[in-house]
């Protein structure tokens, strides 16, 4: 089916139940750098992505310019640590994740993935839960340290891959407050994922976002009319009216 709407999907906590595992691997990789000072409150960093955290921590320790070898070594270590944990524990999808990607493929929504994880780890996560993806539709922090740049690049990539010069709608689905903020900055639609009992779900709801308990609700929103957002819905982050995919 011809695509004329874009669906930007986060991975950790949105498609895969991988946040604790990823945090453990990231902490190990960061501690292995042997930095004199290491702030482990990742949410306080300017860019909440693997490479953004790595670069900022290095700069805080006097390393302003990173060599490609140093960055590659960090990514290899992080990937190895995550691969070990994945082999030990396995990984589950967020309920409805695979079904959403499959359902969207049959609609006018073109799917792209935008994640703060590095590429190799992100590939492992999607494959572990059986979500098919094309490499060109996966945008990671290996390419962009900034979440805003990630989402911007994902939308641009979707326009190219799916041949959508003028998207009728662009909607981001994520589980983090940063996902909501970036969507607001870019003026695109946003739907959160998280149960009312989860910290992320409560936080997003407190900021006025529309939040699904899981992705089965998102699947049901891909109606025969392809309307993920009700016409005239308001983006709580910006106060602007969102387009729907008519």
Got a strand count? 6
Mean pLDDT value: 90
Q: What structural class do helix, strand and pairing data support? A: alpha/beta
Under the CATH scheme, the architecture of the largest domain is 3-Layer(aba) Sandwich
Low-confidence stretches: 229-243
CATH C-level class of the largest domain is Alpha Beta
- Physical arrangement of strands within the biggest beta sheet: 3-2-1-4-5-6
Strand content: 5-15%
Order of secondary-structure elements: EHHHHEHEHEHEHEH
| CATH level-3 fold name of the largest domain | Rossmann fold
CATH level-4 homologous superfamily of the largest domain: HAD superfamily/HAD-like
The end-to-end distance, rounded to whole angstroms, is: 14 Å
Percent range of helical residues: 40-55%
Instruction: Characterize the largest beta sheet: strand count, sense, and whether it forms a barrel.
Output: 6 strands, parallel
């Amino acid at each position: 089916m011809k695509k004329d709407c874009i669906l930007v999907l986060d991975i950790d906590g949105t498609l895969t139940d991988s946040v604790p595992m990823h945090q453990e691997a990231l902490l190990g990789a960061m501690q292995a750098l042997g930095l004199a000072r290491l702030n482990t409150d990742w949410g306080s960093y300017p860019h909440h992505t693997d490479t953004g955290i790595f670069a900022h921590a290095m700069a805080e320790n006097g390393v302003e310019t990173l060599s490609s070898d140093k960055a590659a070594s960090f990514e290899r270590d992080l990937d190895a640590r995550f691969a070990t944990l994945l082999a030990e524990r396995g990984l589950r999808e967020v309920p409805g994740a695979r079904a959403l990607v499959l359902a969207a493929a049959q609609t006018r929504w073109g799917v792209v993935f935008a994640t703060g994880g590095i590429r190799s780890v992100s590939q492992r996560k999607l494959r572990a839960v059986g979500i098919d993806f094309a490499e060109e539709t996966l945008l990671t922090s290996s390419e962009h340290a900034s979440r805003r740049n990630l989402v911007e690049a994902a939308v641009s990539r979707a326009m190219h891959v799916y041949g959508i010069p003028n998207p009728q709608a662009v909607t981001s689905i994520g589980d983090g407050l940063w996902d909501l903020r970036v969507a607001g900055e870019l003026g695109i639609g946003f739907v959160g994922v998280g149960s009312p009992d989860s910290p992320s779900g409560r936080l997003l709801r407190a900021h006025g976002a529309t939040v699904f308990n899981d992705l089965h609700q998102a699947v049901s929103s891909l109606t025969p009319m392809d309307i993920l957002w009700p016409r005239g819905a308001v983006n709580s982050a910006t106060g602007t009216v969102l387009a729907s995919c008519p």
